[in-house]
Amino acid sequence: MASAETAAEHERILREIESTDTNCIGPTLRSVYDGQEHGLFMDKLEGRIRNHDREIEKMCNHHFQGFVDSITELLKVRGEAQKLKCQVTETNQKLQNDGKELLTSMDELRQCRLQQRNIATTIDKLTHCLPVLEMYSKLQEQMRAKRYYPALRTLEQLEESCLPQAGSYRFCGIMSENIPRLRTHIRDVSMSDLKDFLESIRKHSDKIGETAMKQAQVQIARDNAVTSQQRSASGRRIRKEACSGTEVDRTGSNPFSEKDSGILDVEDEEKDEIPGAQDLVDFSPVYRCLHIYTVLGARDTFENYYRKQRRKQARLVLQPHSNMHETLEGYRRYFNQIVGFFVVEDHILHTTQGLVNRAYVEELWELALSKTIAALRTHSSYCTDPDLILDLKNLIVLFADTLQGYGFPVNQLFDMLLEMRDQYGEILLKKWNQSFRQILDQDNYSPIPVASPEEYQRIAGQFPFQDPELDKMPFPKKLPFSEFVPKVYSQLKEFIYACLKYSEDLHLSSTEIDDMIRKSTNLLLTRTLSHCLQYAIKKKNVGLAELVQIIINTTHLEQSCHYLEEFISNITNVPPDTINATKLYGTSTFKDARHAAEEEIYTNLNQKIDQFLQLADYDWTAAQGGAQASDYLSDLIAFLCSTFAVFTHLPGNAIEHATLPGKVAQTACMSACKHLSTSLLQLLLEGDVRQVSMGALQQFNVDVKECERFARAGPVPGFQGDTLLLAFIDLRQLLDLFTQWDWSTYLADYGRPTCKYLRVNPQTALTLLEKMKDTSRKNNMFAQFRKNERDKQKLIDTVVKQLRNLIATNQA
């Protein structure tokens, strides 16, 4: 059974070997070698090989006769082929001999045809090469002549048209290799020209800006002149303009530029024409470079480079010099450079297509505007000269008007000028503060003597003073005020003019100008002039006569305030009764100064009185008083009499405020008497005085009577009856109570309106009585042995007790 299976497997393997490609019998043979019947398989394989050999031998024997027949027939054909070969050779020899002449003729014809074709080809190639050579020669000439833009066009035509038609010759290859180098050379040369151009406009920006600002100034002056002529005589203006050919207004967005170049226009009437930007700078390099880069396909690169370089130049131009604020010329150079820069940019904007656009120029202007305003704010803050500030303002206005003529927005510049207006006002206030101080320091505080009508008219022209009664008086005569009144008034008008000068050309309405002037004038009045007047009033060594003259002066200045109102209205053409119009505070300023002077008079008088009172030397324990007033009080009364005589003899009876010195004198006199009365009472009651004898009280009473005689004598006219005596009424009733020892009446009538001692305070009476009580105890050692003294002491004790009860009752 096993041998049958083995035989079948060997048979399968043999069939597989017979039918399989020899490259794939490896696995089959491996299965044989892996088996156990290797020898048996080899026997079987040899048997199969013998079978196939027998079959091959049978097949060869079957076809051998046909093979022999084929060889025999092939031998017969070889003989015939040899005969045919000989015939062909003979025929060929004959043909060769017969065609030698024909071949010679054909060869000659071929050579002629070849030469003819070469000539035609040469002519054709030369026809294509000659334009190339001519074009290249033209290119070389253009390069030598530095006509780079035509050279670039020639180069483009040579590369795109001529060289492709000429073919691939060596010289064409050399030309083709040179073309990129030529392009690079042209680009580099044009870029060098552009750099020279940028350097040129950087150098000439100052001159270009100066030219533009001169043109703007001429245009503004011309417009102002035309406006004035229109107001005065419109017909005459038209005739003059027709004769002179003056161009008043230009069409277009740029009133200062030509139609096609954007450069400043030059007046035809002027002999010395002002050059424009195109006369100062040659713009051809930038145009040429722009065209070249456009042809080269690098326009964007050129635009970016140009804008980048101009931005760098803008930053340099916008960087001010550190000492720019020192002189107006520094500001002028700064503005000229900025104007020159933007005039060039405006020219480039209008003469090129796309090199710079409106957005780029506006971006640069925004940068310039912010940096310019910042620089002006910084540098103008260092300025302390109002004239320089005013000149700077006019220069900024011209700068703004010039650039506005080129279409640039300049509202921020005018806003900054309004900010500078506050700084200008502060500088003016400082300057006028010095002027006022100098006027007040140099004034003699005496009425102005007038010796002639001419002098009177001169002063009346400086200060609006009218007094019909004074006009009737003969010369020489005296004006009631001192020199500082017309000087201060003139300075006020000068200040208003200075404010008006700054407000001009700021494109403000008359109402706005009027409001600015009035507000500035109010600051001058309420702050500067007020402080100067206070300084003059409060400074040391100011006499009463000077203080009274200040009162008279401030009264006249107060009365002149409505003239200042009219003056401002006249120069601004704004009626003073306009709604919301700012009113001048001059009246209140001068009133405050007058009141301060009056208070200073009262204070000085009181201080003098205190100085005299410090000389008082009472013997508070004296047994008996003197018959005459104390020396210090006599000197005090003499001082007061001489002082009030100054008030009485002051001029001013012929002016409206003739009662002013009298009122001041009356108030001062009443104030002095009250202060004297109060000080005497405090002197009597002060704590350092522990004892007061009846003799001392009598001496004190003599001094008070001297004061009353002074009051009764009327040192200052105008008091009705014994009004001035009322200042001493408290002291008089107190002294009468003690000298007359009328305690029963005082205690009985206290609190009644008809009380004889109505002005005596119980506490004051008690204080003085206790001082007298102590004096009685200490100075009368044996008072208890005298009946009268004992009775008096008991009376004092009783009165003291009653006064204390009275005080307690009033407090409850």
Key attributes of the depicted protein:
812 residues; 27 helices
Write down the overall geometry.
elongated
Gyration radius, to the nearest Å? Answer: 64 Å
Bin the strand percentage: under 5%
Instruction: Indicate the percent of residues in helices.
Output: over 70%
Total DSSP E strands? 2
What is the CA–CA distance across the termini?
160 Å
Order of helices and strands: HHHHHHHHHHHHHEHHEHHHHHHHHHHHH
Helix count from the secondary structure assignment: 27
Q: Main sheet: which strands, in order across? A: 1-2
Q: Residue ranges: pLDDT <50 for 5 or more in a row?
A: 234-272, 649-660, 779-785
Compute the average pLDDT: 78
The computed structural class is: mainly alpha
**Main sheet properties:** 2 strands, antiparallel
Keywords: Exocytosis, Transport
GO cellular component, one term: plasma membrane
Domain Exocyst complex component EXOC6/Sec15 N-terminal: 44-213
Function: Component of the exocyst complex involved in the docking of exocytic vesicles with fusion sites on the plasma membrane.
Structure, explained:
Residues 44-213 form the Exocyst complex component EXOC6/Sec15 N-terminal domain. Component of the exocyst complex involved in the docking of exocytic vesicles with fusion sites on the plasma membrane. Residues 225-269 are annotated as: Disordered. This is Exocyst complex component. One of its GO terms (biological process) is vesicle tethering involved in exocytosis. With 812 residues, this protein is an all-alpha fold. Helices cover 75% and strands 0% of the residues. The protein is built from 27 helices and 2 strands. It has helices at residues 2-19, 26-34, 38-144, 148-166, 170-232, 234-244, 277-280, 284-295, 299-317, 328-351, 358-380, 386-405, 411-442, 453-462, 468-472, 484-503, 510-538, 544-559, 561-572, 586-613, 631-648, 659-685, 694-712, 729-740, 743-749, 762-779, 787-811; strands at residues 449-450, 477-478. Strands 1-2 form a two-stranded antiparallel sheet. Helix 3 packs across helix 4 (148-166), helix 16 (484-503) runs antiparallel to helix 17 (510-538) and helix 17 (510-538) runs parallel beside helix 20. The longest helix has 107 residues, at 38-144. The chain is elongated, with a radius of gyration of 64 Å. It starts with a helix and ends with a helix.
